[in-house]
């Protein structure tokens, strides 16, 4: 089976478990003593399903997963897996949840799959082959006005990370359509990719959340950089994804002025 076919199978199979248990939290645990960092039995079960499928089909590949130790095989191919990006949303039955799988080859992202099993929305992007939502081609929007844009963001729970998204709050709340955190970075990138939104940024990069959406957004025409407006790479510390209009430079200026 090809990479795309296996990744699609993996998120579909894990998605069944997530969907069947939605609204019924099982085995809720707190990571690192922080109530903002949660894991459930469903995260673990979905992760096992994905890893088993990937290992069965590509036993020689490396796998980096949020809910398991790295699977190292010295390969140029590396899979990045987040079985449930949006666990906090899941625990309160908020249906904005993404199962995210990305693949890199020699450090280049080549495949991204993001699936919301609750509402059955399936985003796929493959290097040089475009991006789709439920099989239909997607493109970014053409909006160039910040006042029409919901600026979405993610951050880690460190004081520095929180401060970096807190400082631009007043500007975006008064000059953009709104400024919101939806709680699933992988899906939020896909919403820029399909034109539902125009801006997503984060001060710190978590590769298993970013890589799947990166491929989908890139293939849909998005502009993706770090906060210095350099092309985004795996080693980049931060991220900005937009529809590629003048909004990109405007948001960069606001973020950097607010540091």
- The CATH topology assignment of the largest domain is Fructose-1,6-Bisphosphatase, Chain A, domain 1
- CATH homologous superfamily of the largest domain - what is it? Fructose-1,6-Bisphosphatase, subunit A, domain 1
Tell me the series of helices and strands, N- to C-terminal: HEEHEEHEEEEEEHHEHEHEEH
Number of helices: 8
Poorly predicted runs: none
The largest beta-sheet arranges its strands as 3-4-5-6-7-8-9
Structural class: alpha+beta
CATH class of the largest domain: Alpha Beta
Kindly report how far apart the N and C termini lie.
47 Å
Question: How many domain units?
Answer: 2
Q: Using the CA coordinates, give the radius of gyration.
A: 17 Å
Q: Which architecture of the largest domain per CATH?
A: 2-Layer Sandwich
Averaging pLDDT over every residue, what do you get?
A: 94
**DSSP summary, beta strand count:** 14
Largest sheet: 7 strands, mixed
Measured as a percent range, the helix fraction is 25-40%
